[in-house]
Amino acid sequence: MVGWLRSAGLLLLLGLAVATPAMADSPGSEFKRVADASFTSPDRTVRVEQYAKDMGDEGLLFQFWTFDRARKHGALLNQGEGTDAAGYQAGFRFSPDSRWLVRMQKIGAGYHTLYLYKRTGDRFVPATQKPLGEAAWDYFYTQPAAEGVRRDPDDPYTLDHMQIGLIKGFDENYAWLGMKWPDSRYLVLGMSFDIQGEHPPFPWVEDWRCVYDLKTGTFSVPASFAEHNAKARKIPGKDQP
């Protein structure tokens, strides 16, 4: 297990010992709202707010809550994640139709993942069984780009500095990529990792891209991504700094 995971585990263990469970519809009193860290859905009916608890020398723990317009109903997004709190602040993007919510989450130094939520009434619930970022890496390992890449089946973050992010353009259905996709149907994801300290070295990727279909819950690589992804796959000796 990589070092940052051990550190994160210690942080969450300490948090478990002292954290007060969240109330049913609002953060606990020890969590304070983070200024300028809120996001509102395009239809203006749901708002994401971030709350932080100061753990002293151990840093901060974050909770992410959604509220309806009248603030009568609140729901914790990161329910069931360790102590129901994350070690880092997050970024959020709503789909243009306000039915989907993507959470862009740092999970360690140089490590980022994604969570996907779907709307049910005035709440958002997890749309995938595991974080969308982990599911995307599972898909990556089925692709030719992953040939020769080491993987530990017991550790979803086997590789150094594994990062997955949401490519800009979700708000406008990726018009800048020249796509003419249905409204709020697809997510374009960019994936990267490095091979620092690996002996022997193996191929790595920098902004390898795939698409997630929100309707079918499946990943794919459009033919139009082929040229970009060919350049994103780096070969030791040829592309190594």
TrEMBL record:
<protein>
    <submittedName>
        <fullName>Uncharacterized protein</fullName>
    </submittedName>
</protein>
<keyword id="KW-0732">Signal</keyword>
<feature type="signal peptide">
    <location>
        <begin position="1"/>
        <end position="24"/>
    </location>
</feature>
